[in-house]
Amino acid sequence: VFAESNLKVTGVDFLKSQNTRQHHTDGYNIKNLVVRRGQAFLVQISFSRELRAADKLSLRFGIGENPVKIKGSLLSLRPEREDFNGWKISVVKKSGNECLLSVTSSPYAAVGKYNLHVKTGTNIYKPENGVIYLLFNPWCEDDVVYMANEEQRKEYVLNDTGYIYVGSANNIYDRPWNYGQFEEFVLDACMYLLEKSKLSLTDRRDPASVSRAMSALVNANDDNGVLLGNWSGNYISGTSPMDWIGSVTILQKYYKTKKPVRYGQCWVFAGVLNTVMRCLGVPCRCVSTFDAAHDTEGNLRVDVYLNERGEKLNSLSFDSVWNFHVWNDAWMKRTDLPEGFNGWQAIDSTPQEQSQGLFQCGPCPVKAVREGDVYLPYDGKFVYAEVNADRVYWKVVKVNGKEKYFKLGTETQSIGKNISTKAVGQNRRVDITREYKYPEGSREERMSMQRAYSFIRPSGMIPRSGYASTIETANASAQIVVPKESVSKTGLHLEITNTEALHPGNPLEMAITVKTSTPGNWTIDLTGSCQLQYYTGNVQANLGTIKETIKLEGTSEMQVPLKIAPDAYMKTLSSLEGEVLILVTAIAEVKETNEKLTKETSMRFEYPPITVQMPETAKLYNDFTCALIFKNKLNVTLENCKLLVEGLGIFKMTTFDQGDIMPGRIMKSEIICTPTRLGDKKIVAKLISNQIKGISAEKAITITE
């Protein structure tokens, strides 16, 4: 009689394909069950005999090393009894020795790996692959990451490819990036980061705490995190930041070695953080800001120093303006803040400044940046300065062996332009500047600025270089003055353009246009310079300067050419590891009024395209051929060419050495692809050589059954 009553479990079926479809987790390439919190999933249990009313049955979910009930890390759930912590289970149906149970986790449950044991009386059954991965749930209205719009959820949670926008404000281009949050070992890498973060169970419920911890762990500073940053131009001991086309290789390598991967720059950090957040179930997007301020003093000002030839000087500046900077926005309700700050939150894993002793940044509500509420956690002042600082130009002149600083002018509207992200459901750029800032010059912008300034307290107008005096103007903080543009007497205006396509190996042909628009005769001294710089604003080479005096009358303009011969820059270009931009700076000084104006423009080189040829559709597990074709239309040999190719679900990341490609020569590579997953997929290709760093191409294909 006793043996007959002793109930034992003989098997557990996690009904994986059915559950993962319901939970939008069928993409994860993993043996275990992956589900989202706050939503029911089914478990089929087989017993040694029929389940009776008197039988004691409980499902025990444990998280962490040694789970205990008192700490909330062990949940013991019995059918039909709502448990502490908001989890519940119920019997859906019984038939013979089998029982179908429905388990609903709390929408506030800690995210992570749960070990499931089934207890019957005194027996404990430990199923095979009994570890269940629990993620945030943007489909669940009670989850703080809930996102109402299905198109947005598809983009910000489920899309495993995208674009990161780079270049310069007047020449934005898209860099395809494979996020690959569903690839093998990526989810495990994210779970490893969660464990490494040492977040408490309470903090693991909260996407704000999780996203802050991940912003710290994606960089290697402080904590042996995923990526080591390197802006030196020397990447011999690792992979150049330009050579990645996605996050998958990086996260897989990190998970395997548990050591930081070399090397990253801002778009790589943002690409990886985007993968991590989407993988954990938090809606996330990569955000690029053009002309972003990196201001080490938090005084809302970036000082740019020019020599008498109009060339920018690196050595004097503590702060800098980056041609672009990429961070992320994560979507959540901020339960820790007053009303009105839900929605997108900026997080940044590029190691720039310490926050609370670690290289981490955010989450900072995007609405707080717009409203000037920079005191709100986390790092509001820093993010605000990145998109709102003023740029002040100084001319450094040697007088009797001493350096003197002359102010050339202030630009109040040049920082934080064209804030960009990929459009929802479309392969195009969308401008989200309005989410971060009110229109320049509007009443709301003024009010937001006054508000921000009351918390930041900018210092007086003294150059802040390492050599300049550091005396603050007395009583600078007493009166908060929001800077205004001064009105020009001459209507002086500068424009910088290229007059021919900027192909490496050709002369760089540019022009500075000087315009006046008020009556009078004006004599204008124009100084112009051309330099090569990294996207961080760091100058790598001086290529040439011009100095001219021109006369303009009333409303008129004159175009002054600036031409750089190939010999002046090709050697430098080939020796630099990163992608460089062409920086042109112009200074105009009007003799009659002593008015000064400075303008700078960054332009990127233009490259011939890669063509990808492959069918529009293919069948699952049926091989197809993809051809990659590149014609070197430049009149220089491209040395040490490497072709990088990756297609999630169709082709594993591979690098092909292509040697040198002479002018006019055609490179053709054919690869065999095997589709292992259904749906819309794409091949991403990138060509790298000594002379050029960033030619990318992609092509989409639909995989059917």
TrEMBL record:
Keywords: Acyltransferase, Calcium, Metal-binding, Transferase. It is an enzyme of class 2 (transferase). Residues 258-351 form the Transglutaminase-like domain. Its cofactor is Ca(2+). Ca(2+) binds at residues 388, 390, 440, 445. One of its GO terms (molecular function) is protein-glutamine gamma-glutamyltransferase activity. The active site is at 266, 325, 348. Binds 1 Ca(2+) ion per subunit. InterPro entries: Ig-like_fold (IPR013783), Ig_E-set (IPR014756), Papain-like_cys_pep_sf (IPR038765), Transglutaminase (IPR050779), Transglutaminase-like (IPR002931), Transglutaminase-like_sf (IPR036985), Transglutaminase_animal (IPR023608), Transglutaminase_AS (IPR013808). Its EC number is 2.3.2.13. It catalyses: L-glutaminyl-[protein] + L-lysyl-[protein] = [protein]-L-lysyl-N(6)-5-L-glutamyl-[protein] + NH4(+). It comes from the Eukaryota. Belongs to the transglutaminase superfamily. Transglutaminase family. Homodimer. This is Protein-glutamine gamma-glutamyltransferase 4. The lineage of its organism: Eukaryota, Metazoa, Chordata, Craniata, Vertebrata.
